[in-house]
């Protein structure tokens, strides 16, 4: 089974220290929701060797600085960091990737967590995972998707790549929620960020 929890936002200049704090909050909360992933994390850089790191701000700050110096385009587009849970339980894989801190003209900033888990595992805490992304990264919007959700609109409704759609659970920032009719999400919940789950 595979589930993806995502958040997207526009240009937002942030320092490495601010990004390390966001990462630290994410890596503190995710293992509490997914106890199969407690322990260290491993970087998965586009080039160069992987490194094991602790989910602490100093360790994450150092990883962000290394990522920033490796990629010449980081200053404008944002710093890309991809982490994989190093000690996940058998049958589990958790990968979290973010592109953040930049001000690109055409590229969205994002946090994408991909969770692979055994079919017999209990249901994932989808709402809590998306809440973590919303409260840690303050995206404009986000959702939770899986293969069934992404394939059904293509097969049954003729959707194509690029057709606006959302997963089985969504998050809208306060600004986006304010422009959406309230009857569009009758089972919604407002988060401390002001956004709506």
Molecular structure report:
The protein is an alpha+beta fold and 197 residues long. It has one domain (2-184). It is 32% helix and 23% strand. The chain contains 6 helices and 8 strands. It has helices at 16-33, 57-70, 74-77, 126-137, 147-157, 174-178, and strands spanning 2-9, 41-43, 52-53, 79-85, 93-100, 109-116, 141-146, 169-172. Strands 3-2-4-5-6-1-7-8 form an 8-stranded antiparallel beta sheet. It is globular, with a radius of gyration of 17 Å. The model has no long low-confidence stretch (mean pLDDT 88). This is DUF317 domain-containing protein.
**DSSP strand content:** 15-25%
Structural class: alpha+beta
Total separate domains: 1
Q: What integer is the average pLDDT?
A: 88
Query: CA-to-CA gap between the ends?
Result: 23 Å
Total beta strand runs: 8
Provide the spatial order of strands within the biggest beta sheet: 3-2-4-5-6-1-7-8
- Assembly form of the protein: single chain
Major beta sheet summary: 8 strands, antiparallel
Alpha plus pi helix count:
6
Q: Give the uncertain stretches in residue-range form.
A: none
Strand/helix succession: EHEEHHEEEHEHEH
Our Rg estimate from Cα atoms comes to 17 Å
**Shape designation:** globular
User: Helix proportion of residues, in percent?
Assistant: 25-40%
Protein name: DUF317 domain-containing protein
Structure summary:
This is DUF317 domain-containing protein. The protein has helices at 16-33, 57-70, 74-77, 126-137, 147-157, 174-178, and strands spanning 2-9, 41-43, 52-53, 79-85, 93-100, 109-116, 141-146, 169-172. The chain is an alpha+beta fold and 197 residues long.
